[in-house]
What does this fold into?
Amino acid sequence: MNKALNIGAFLGALICIGLSYSAISYLDLSATYALHPLMAIVYVTLCVFLLGVLGFKGIRGWVSAFRSLATIGMTVGLVIFILVLHSVGSLIK
It folds into this structure.
């Protein structure tokens, strides 16, 4: 179960990075959303972060340790990047 959680969190982090790239690239700035798409990705990424922390229990070797650390690093970096991007965009707007 913990190994599947570890792998699932890693794949979730990769999916969140792809979603953020597509949201940034194809975002319609004239549309009004109830929840900004980038903020929705932040919430999903935070959930993946929590799964990544829980996935630390599934570490059995150096590959799974690297996968866990990469998951945590990618999710923290993505959340910081999106929050900075969103706050700067709000200031400019």
In short: DSSP finds three helices and no strands in the chain. The mean pLDDT is 88.
